């Protein structure tokens, strides 16, 4: 069984619910890694999984969980199922993408770290925050179709008798 599979079995129950005590142990360790990265302004890291675990006092499974968490912002994501203790991971971190991803995942404990002030001004953080929040907002720019208007699909029927019938 791989490290990632082992982590998933520890972190989630058979029904897909998270195991609180596992996450309560992991989240402060993850936060320490991000504090280190932001404090030192590290954009490129190259470590074995076991070295990440040793450096930050965590298990190999937790180190793989960290790579899984940051995987979405990497230019070349890893297949976390293939990661083993001796696998070397090269992490190239774009801070703006990382900040936006933390906002998307609603990880307030990470995007509100004071170390972000070393990288972005308060205005830049606010701009990135709003840009990410608005990225998921659907804005219908076309005119609103009324029930008795012709259907926009072009059938010639009224909207309420065509595409709007099952709404």
From TrEMBL:
Question: Which one Pfam family would you cite for this protein?
Answer: SEC-C
- Name the InterPro entries on file: SEC_C_motif (IPR004027)
Protein name as annotated:
Protein translocase subunit SecA
What is the species listed in this Swiss-Prot or TrEMBL entry?
Answer: bioreactor metagenome
Lineage of the species this protein comes from: unclassified sequences, metagenomes, ecological metagenomes
